[in-house]
Amino acid sequence: MGQPIKIIGAPMDYGADRRGVDMGPSAIRYAGLADGLSRAGVDPVDAGDLSIPRAEERDPDVEQPTQGHAKFLREVEDVCTRLADRVEAILDNGEFPLVLGGDHSVAIGSMRGSSSDADLGAIWFDAHADLNTPETSPSGNVHGMPLAATLGRGAFADMTWAHAPRVNEESIAYVGLRSIDERERDLLRDSEMTAFTMADIDERGMTAVVENALDVATTDTDGVHVSLDLDWLDPKTAPGVGTPVRGGVTYREAHAALETVSRRHERDGILRSMDVVEVNPILDEGNETATLAAELAASAFGKRIL
Ligand SMILES: NC(=[NH2+])NCCC[C@H](N)C(=O)O
Ligand SMILES: [Mn+2]
Ligand SMILES: [Mn+2]
């Protein structure tokens, strides 16, 4: 059955404005994640959830970086530090870490852990660029900042729990971008990251775009982290997310994308870690977004129609 997949839940909502995303891991498990992975031919082992301090005990105004604004940064640091350690230990054990969010700030921990012993590329399946720093963020929500944190931008420069020096911007590719804040656009334009927007998908088709993104993420790296934010999909298909943006990826395009990743992984063994984030069961309709998250994970690990 190949490399065992270690499922680890990070039921965190500190990085998002909308409560409920902390229930994502339960909803994705309930939707049949482990069964789907087994049917895809891999061996899932559920390592349970990280413990997260109770939301009711938080105070949004306690801790702030010296510059800018980032809500609950101390709580995010605590969770991501523990998550990074877990991800690193799973990889040391020869297993594959599959992290279930939680809001997208969990990716700070996933990528830090996954890159501790490796040069790591990343594919960011998301409507958003998640490149705000505390200085540029219009919302102060850390789920809009994980890539800036990983790259050590702005106020994150001195935060060793966040900055992952073995992730280089040249090895990061976005797929499906369609919502970028004004100051974030300048950060993106001035960076070496590769951004495939929805317009690129319209023009060239999903498979070609993802092949290209994989080329970017595998050049001069030891492996790839896949970060799947469910708001990447169109809200009609994935309504259970806190920051929906219309004009997103369709059901079939999403499966085609993850199947393309899986085919490259079967050929070249490129994948190193993955997270599936931003499923909010309170905003969902009949758990369909969590079900989609579970199905897309199965596609990434080899599930095929025939
Ligand atoms: N992972 C996400 N859903 N991010 C949404 C970010 C939205 C907006 N760009 C912000 O900084 O607040
Ligand atoms: Mn998003
Ligand atoms: Mn995101």
Labels describing this entry:
EC 3.5.3.1, binds manganese (II) ion, 306 residues, manganese, 10 helices, arginase activity, 17% strand, Arginase, Chain A, alpha/beta, binds arginine, metal-binding, Ureohydrolase_dom_sf, eight-stranded parallel β-sheet
Describe this structure as you would to a colleague.
Helix 2 packs parallel to helix 10. Helices cover 35% and strands 17% of the residues. It starts with a strand and ends in a 6-residue tail after the last helix. It has a single domain, classed as Ureohydrolase domain (Arginase, Chain A, 3-Layer(aba) Sandwich). The chain has ten helices and eight strands. The radius of gyration is 17 Å and the shape is globular. The chain is α/β, with parallel strands linked by helices. The model has no long low-confidence stretch (mean pLDDT 95). It has an eight-stranded parallel beta sheet, sandwiched between helices. Bound molecules: arginine and manganese (II) ion (2 copies). Arginine binds next to loops.
